[in-house]
Design goal:
heterodimer; A: mainly alpha; 13 helices; 0% strand; B: mainly alpha; MetI-like fold; globular; MetI-like (chain B); Carbohydrate ABC transporter permease (chain B); transmembrane helix (chain B); transmembrane (chain B); MetI-like_sf (chain B)
Amino acid sequence: MTRPAEGRRSRGRTVIGAVLVAVMLFPLYWMVNASFQTNAQIAARSPSWLPLGGTLAGYRDALAAQGGHLLTSLLVATAATALTLLVAAPAAFGLTLLRVPGGRPLLFVLLIVQLIPGIVLANALYRIFSPLGLLGTPMALILSDSTLSVPFAVLILRAFMVSIPRELIEAAGIDGAGPVRAFLTIVLPVSRNALITAGLFAFLFAWGDFLFATSLNLGAPRWTPITVGLYDFIGAGTNTTSWNAVMATAVLASLPVAALLVIAQRYVAAGLSAGAVKD
Amino acid sequence: MGMPLREHPAARPSPPAPAGPAARRARGGPRLRARLVRAGFVAPVVVYVLAFFAYPLARNVVLSFQDYGIESVYTGDAPFNGLANYARVLHDAVFRTAAANTVVFVVASLLFQFVIGLALAVFFQGSFPLGGLLRSLLLVPWLLPLVVSGTVFRWMLDTGNGVVNQVLLAAHVIGAPVPWLNSVDTAMIGVLLCNVWIGVPFNMVILYGGLRSIPRGLYEAAELDGAGALRRFRHITLPLLRPVITVVLTLGLIYTIKVFDVIWVLTKGGPANATQTVTTYAYQLSFGGLSEFGAGAAAGNVLIVVAMVFAFLYLRSLRSETP
């Protein structure tokens, strides 16, 4: 009896939900919209709600000015992701299935270091990297960006590996060279999803980093990531007239997020909650 | 408590003469080797934490007691100056403004992020067609690089061509364009608007997870007892959600205290320090051109102490809530 009414009600909720999402995502639409507009449309007194009669000039300017920065970001984020997984995956294995002594204090430390404000690390790393000649190099960004993801990645991977049955490892023989083989041939393949999640976030964190890039590579235009490139684009002038190129750059800087979200949507929510609610 | 582990000479089975290297390897060797292999898995992360967290933290503490200025950059000379950096920072009028702004920024951000996040979580709790898809779309603002979000809000809040002013003008809510990010009175509102937008998805996802873990039977029983939606929310949802609420607010607080990108892109802490927070203040000391790394370190350490205090409170509340 109540079926039709309930159906109507849940369809109603879908409509309301869609409206809520539209409101929340309006800034993104506005970014894409402006990226296709002409300078005349941008400067007009009333907004153009649709990118009609648009232009790709913004993207041409953006790619000309920011192409290299995109490549730098790609390089830095990929390397930071690799470094993160290289450090975090064995650690998670050691903390769970190998039950290395001192595991609990180490976990606690990994939880606490995530509270350290980035500005504090940037301040100290600048002074540490300076005599090593690392400032202004991609290595400075790779190393500092990895601090955003290593603790997080260990915690996510650990949360997953805790649920791997020990018998699986014991069957492979745990002594001597056993753990290495067990890790490479059993644990890593089984943990594929957790590795994807951890790697995904490591990539996004490094790609989005602005603080380390603008402090450690201050005044080193050769290795400027896209975040700093975008900032310089608007920071240069107080009254920017080329908003279309700025917004086109913003769209390009968001593309990895969009791509990763489409490809690995289900890992994102999982990672979010695993990272936040830890036992 | 336990008996002191002292070996009685007689209790020890007389050992054979000191074993040769081969025998020793046979007894302690494989075990030692296995232990080394196991430790080898954790060694990289231990080294990493020491090199990239412990050492920088220690360096920052030492720096905060050094007179590190622009000339130190060239001479490499930074004499110790006791508490002078802390005195300089704490007596700086800009720091006091920044501290007050940080409180406003954090409290207002958390309040709005939480309320909106909870409302959305409650709404998406019921299952309806496309609910899952819509929910994951809401995550996008949280995943975007913060600089991108900041840039988009700078464009929307632009005085002359921003859509916010254009819409408000057309609706006759305002008579003249509001210089959102360029006025001392409104800059904080602009920065908050952007930061709340970024933080809502995180609050929603975590609270949604918490809501899903409340047994549905409780609601059904309460409904049978004649409890209305509001009463069910107050007497079932809120109390059972409390641990998750603690998590969301504490993590939100820890993230919000250190927000840098959003403020830097929107206002650089201006105009006239109206949006200056402790984080942007510390950045300006170190990287603003005068290379006051000592004072910057001191300001940063103040920030750490605040974060640690709240982290401690958080961990304590976690312990008291989990039996």
